[in-house]
Amino acid sequence: MMRQDRRLRFVAAFAVFAALVSLLSPVEGQEARTGAPVSPAHRRLHERGADFIVGQQAAGGSWESSAGVSGICIMALLASGEDPNHGKYADSLRLGVRSLVAQQSRTSGQIGSGMYEHGFAMLCLADCFGAVDERLFADKGLELERSIGESLRLAVRCAVTSQQQNPFKAWRYSPSSSDADSSVTGAILMGLLGARNAGVPVPDDSIENALAYLDSMTTESGTVSYSGTGGLGDSLARSSIVALCRSVAKRPLADDALRRYVVSRSMESTSSAHPCYSRYYVSQALFQLDHAAWRAWSAKNTNDLLLRQGEDGRIIIAASFQGPAYQTAMLLLSGALEYTLLPVYER
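^ thats the sequence. predicted structure below, dont judge the formating
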């Protein structure tokens, strides 16, 4: 019954904008409960970006030959509240989901070439579960190899098995890695939390062990080390990952160093060496930690992205190996809390 209620709520959330009222916490004040109206400028930013993403999709349904990028692009299309079953992006979403499921190993459950990709693909499937009507796939001749729920359960099994074999009880790039890092661990943990939130069983000790690893990487000043085998360093994105994971796992932060670090440094995310990745996590962490700080950050982020958006809708802010679909989708997701419709954004 709980899963059925959840499925109905997700479908309604994507069909009716008013449903976002039920997704926000009643303890942050009226604005946080109901959300501020999404500005026409932000809607235009997201719609043009989403149209560009659809145009970048390969014939087989993937983006940039990557399960991780495909998951990110699917989430970006879901984020604005378009009906995923009958809206303008429905066909693209079905192709994308079908591609993700097809890329999953039938034996290990791994999706994509490494655990980073697996984490984002797993989070995407969790967001799709209950929102995307699988009965409509057959009508389009796009039958799935297995249901979204089955694929998500296999993905969870893969992550849990990898963690159990890891000396740090966390994750690195390969499912058989003997070391770990806070970045990949955060991506996998968010996927597991999304799966649990969708009603898929996730062992409690898997969540607790991952949180314990991230806590062990967090210093007294609020910075988060990169690797379990060394490499301290200073990264706003990593600190944001830990703050986000703890918040979503219902381990609220007091007014401690990690909270202060993320809130005080948040504006630096727009000039980060990894600006797409940094903005994606800073936005979500701020939304959980300090609504007023997130509102100021989001207004600046939207204005900056509008200035950088090309005529075709793409948003490119880093000259690197990262492709235009990845950059555009990640940056749209950094602004997706203006809509607060994806399940991962619940507070």
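Residues 73 and 329 are 5 Å apart (CA to CA).
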